[in-house]
């Protein structure tokens, strides 16, 4: 059974930083593209970033490019998302997703709230 557990969300001021983590189990983590998506209140799922299985190729939504950094540690089955220069529009529930489809298997999410 695929399990994904996100953590690291919280309250941050505009301009602040957070680091999200996602631990995967029940599948071969090192062989999968992994994706971060987010969902703001009343909105649909938004693709944020993904990373190839080896960690050598990454891609970002224009809205987060230059501010967020995706990475992974395959030895620890862990996916990360470093969030810097946070903006109020970044407020959302953040999910890690197995694979490339934003509707793929995901965890319960971790809430990021950006507010002064």
Main sheet characteristics: 6 strands, mixed
Amino- and carboxy-terminal Cα gap: 40 Å
**Radius of gyration computed on alpha carbons:** 13 Å
What portion of residues belong to β-strands?
A: over 45%
Q: What is the strand arrangement across the widest sheet?
A: 2-10-9-4-5-6
Given as residue ranges, the uncertain stretches (5+ residues, pLDDT < 50) are none
**Shape category:** globular
Structural class: mainly beta
Name the average pLDDT: 97
User: Which range best describes the helical content: under 10%, 10-25%, 25-40%, 40-55%, 55-70% or over 70%?
Assistant: under 10%
Order of helices and strands: EEEEEEEEEE
Instruction: Give me the number of helical elements.
Output: 0
Report the strand count: 10
What does this protein structure show overall?
The protein has no helices and ten strands. The protein is an all-beta fold and 116 residues long. A six-stranded mixed sheet has the order 2-10-9-4-5-6, with no helix packed on it. Strand 5 (45-51) and strand 6 (58-60) form a beta hairpin. The N and C termini lie far apart (40 Å). 31% of the residues are buried.
